[in-house]
Amino acid sequence: MRRNLLALLVALGTAAAAVTAAPAQADPVGTLACPSIPANRDPAVTLVVYRVARAHNANDKVLLSAFEAGWVESHMNNLPCGDKSSLGVFQQRWDYGWGTPEQIMDPVYASTQYVTRAIVCDRNNPGYSAGQVAQCVQRSGFPDRYDQVAATARAQLNEAARTHAIAGGSATDVTGDGRDDVVGFTQNALADVYVATSTGSAFAGTSVKWNDFFSVGGETASTGDVNGDGRDDIVTFAHSNTGDVYVALSTGTAFGGGMKWHDWFAPGAEIGAVGDVDGDGRDDLVAFTHNAAGDVYVALSTGTGFGPGLKWHEYFSPFGEFPALGDVDGDGRDDLVTFTQGPATASDVIVALSNGSSFGAAQKWHDLFAVGAEQPRVGDINGDGRDDIVTFTCNADADVYAATSTGTGFAGTTVKWNDYFCLAGEFPYLADANGDGRDDIVVFTKGSTNDIHVSLSTGTGFLGATKWHDFFGLNGETTL
User: I need a labelling partner for 243 at 20 to 30 A (CA). Which of 10, 202, 358, 423 fits?
Assistant: First the structure.
């Protein structure tokens, strides 16, 4: 059943709604004073603010200013109350031209109003700090407050960016030759999509454009064979208030035009993923609400569109965890996987197996894996037909650990498969780059080099890294 926009707004405002009791008299919306402000941010609100800013190609200063303003005004909560007529995450006033109370209480609308004005202010005042940009928009009586919370705002911005970038793995064989390729989405005003195809020993092609408008900033770009022709296609989740999902099918040498395959899936702050959960050879859509409810919805592919979103699980991967998909028991159906990502004492890996029409009960398959800020991925690294788990420390140690699937659990604790791969700021992924049936590790260096390095799997470890491309995946682009 289609989830409506009202449900989304209610979910985003749940924490805020608990802030105030019913007024003694029927005051109009927008004139209720907040008795207090929540101490913590609402992660759903922070992610919406981030995605809206990215959709408008906001630079880092404008992004930071939005998080400074949101924290000062509401502690990043969608408040149904405020000083005088102020409402929402940015405490905008309906009687000062910010919109109707109902519009301001929509975090997407409110963020759009803030970001578009902040972009203009930054363009007109390039010397301003993030806090001064916030003051330019907010016109507060206390102008110094915004820069004073820069550290808190930066931490929340980084958290939202990491959540938005969650990508546990997806197939990228866009030519259908059995070797995974690399795909880059610029996700800017141009929204270009570039591909470098695998030769088995390198990725060939520089600036080879396969689509000239697909997946703008703030959307989640992914890949998967949605029509079952053996070639992976590109998929983008628009999120926001539209919940649209677009697909561009691969011809083997390019991606066709973007087509809407669903009109309400993974809206707002939900996490979208692509995988074949019913085992019919066509990849489907999966959405994790990633909140306290922890619901998981699925829309099955028909080959020309996605069916209705249906709930397949009612509590899996709440906020703070890292959700992914993978066929961990080797039955041809992708299952749910989540990494709790706590400290060493609470870094579990939980699995819910697919039966083709729903996901079963959550089961712990590992009790120490992907600690803290490590970057976990899911893929078949030993070629036995069951997906395994891999984690990258992506720090000065640059270690890579793996635990292989037995079909009922993941075996191996602190089993190092490579001791120098993926430094801080780089983006790791899994791909069967040479087509031998085993997923290898791939890293996009980003930064000033924009190289791609690959370490091939032997089935029991990853070999030393070799450079497979010397210019692919610029800073700010999404690379898979």
Answer: 358
Distance CA 26, CA 35 (A): 16
Helices and strands, counts by H and E, the chain:
9, 28
**Exposed, middle or buried, 96 (CB in 10 Å: 0-12/13-18/19+)?**
exposed
Rounded-to-integer distance, Cα 151 and Cα 154, Å = 5
- What would the pLDDT profile of 292-348 be if each residue is shown by its tens digit? 999 999 999 999 999 999 999 999 999 999 999 999 999 999 999 999 999 999 999
Is residue 81 very low, low, confident or very high in pLDDT (cuts 50, 70, 90)?
very high
Cβ burial, residue 277 (10 Å; 0-12/13-18/19+):
buried
Backbone angles phi, psi at 283, to 5 degrees: -75, 140
Amino acid symbol at 239 = H
The mean pLDDT value of the chain amounts to 93
Q: Stretch 394-399: mean pLDDT, rounded?
A: 97
Long-range contacts of 195-201, Cβ-Cβ distance < 8 Å, separation of 24 or more: 196/452, 196/469, 196/472, 198/433, 198/434, 198/435, 200/433, 200/434, 200/435, 201/434, 201/468
Q: Residue 439's CB: how many other CB atoms inside 10 A? A: 27
Q: What is the pLDDT of residue 15?
A: 38
Q: What is the model's pLDDT at position 379?
A: 98
C-alpha dihedral, 300 to 380 to 322 to 188, nearest 10°? -70
| CA separation for the pair 135, 120 (Å, rounded) | 13
346 DSSP β-pair partners: none
